[in-house]
Amino acid sequence: MHTRWILLSAVLATGSTSCKDLECGVGTIERDGSCQPSDETVGNAMCGPFTMLQGDKCVPMFPPTECDPSTTAPDVDPETGVTTCIGTGGGGCSGPLACPTPSAGKQTICGQLYDFENNMTFGQSGATGAKCSAATADGPCSLGIRAYDAIQFGTNPATAVPLAVGDVYIDDCGRYRLTDITVPSGPFIGLGIDDADGAKMGPLGTTNTVGVATPKSVSTATKDFEAWIVKKSTTDQWAASGGPPLSGGIYANVFRGHRTGFDTQAGVQTTRSNNPNTANDYYFTAAQTARQTVDAAATVTGVNGTALITNAAVSESVAYSATGGIPSSCVWEGHAGASIPNLVFIQIFRPVNAVAQTCPL
User: Fold this and answer.
1) pLDDT tens for each residue of 156-184
2) 75-130, pLDDT tens digit by residue?
3) How far apart are CA 284 and CA 241, in angstroms?
4) In this structure, is residue 3 part of a structural domain?
5) Domain annotation covers residue 187
6) CA 210 to CA 343: how far, in whole Å?
7) Which one of 210, 229, 248 terminates a domain?
8) Which residue pairs from 118-123 have beta carbons closer than 8 angstroms and sit at least 24 positions apart in sequence?
């Protein structure tokens, strides 16, 4: 009888505990049967830089960055989310050009213009960073830049229709920005660079017609995209030293030694569908850092890391790539190519991982 009373008492005690609701006050929450401060850090949880724990969430410590719209433009790093306010006028050529996120469904492309012969930035003498307001006789303010479906442009530039663009910005430093580009149906956006004056387009003005291409990336700002001018005097030097004539079109391959950066790679031989492209490739003098003199006997790139290709066509649907100059754990990217009459199309190639390996570059 005594044992039955002990068991009954235990059951009643348990029942009365489970029926009691724990109510915590404002600013506290229930944890493990007791009320504790809601902003108390539990376990090993940590908030990232410039954030703090509020309740059970990490929130920003500071309000969002707001740029002065009259003097700056926001530039958001897609990886960190950090916003930097970049000046929109003047300030010289050393600072970056703001490259804001485009409107939904569009793409913005920003970068710097270079002279392909010497790879120097293509800016006006005494440049201040001022936006080009009218076409000049030479320099970056003499140029125009248009966006295209790169496949259409590579197939027939004469019939390719320019893509709609919100704004085209070029300054006297040679920095450029095409905002809110209406993306094409194809996978690549091409930029066509030539003189703004229609009477000087082609080899008659500041530059031959030049084409570059970048992957389509909807609702994204493509930053630091290299673009070039190629002077008539430059392509004339190529032809005079045994290189291909511009009349047949030139597909210029530039091999960078690393996944990022501007260093060029010597010792590279171009390929077409994984086979040496010896019938159609030309290389520069081995020790020449500029792109001036073609060496007809050369079979690999010199220190400028550049090859000139002829007889390439987008319609072939073949991949142009290369071998040599990099570790065996790396391979060169593959790209479609085009040699378009009276146009220099420039493509950057970089090393990537070989199958089942890790490229250290």
Assistant:
1) 888 899 999 999 999 999 999 999 999 99
2) 666 555 666 666 555 568 888 889 999 999 999 999 999 999 999 999 999 999 99
3) 10
4) no
5) yes
6) 6
7) 229
8) 118/290, 118/291, 119/262, 119/290, 119/291, 119/304, 121/93, 121/173, 121/174, 122/174, 122/228, 122/229, 123/93, 123/172, 123/173, 123/174
Classified as helix, coil or strand, 177 is: strand
As a residue count, the chain comes to 361
Give the pLDDT confidence score for residue 29 in this predicted structure. Answer: 73
Shortest CA distance to 325 belongs to which of 248, 266, 280?
A: 266
The answer to the question of residue 156 being in a domain is: yes
Same-domain pairing of 246 and 223: no
pLDDT in tens, 170-222: 999 999 999 999 999 999 999 999 999 999 998 999 999 999 999 999 999 99
Query: What pTM value is reported for the model?
Result: 0.76
- Whether 264 and 308 map to the same domain: the answer is yes
Q: For residue 174, how many other CB atoms are within 10 A of its CB?
A: 25
Residues 6 or more apart whose Cβ sits within 8 Å of residue 39: 53, 54, 55
Do 319 and 275 share a structural domain?
yes
Report yes or no on 83 lying in a domain. Answer: no
Q: Domain count for the chain, please give it.
A: 2
Query: DSSP code of 164?
Result: P
Q: Which domain holds residue 311?
A: 232-353
Q: Give dist(CA 330, CA 181) in Å, integer.
A: 34
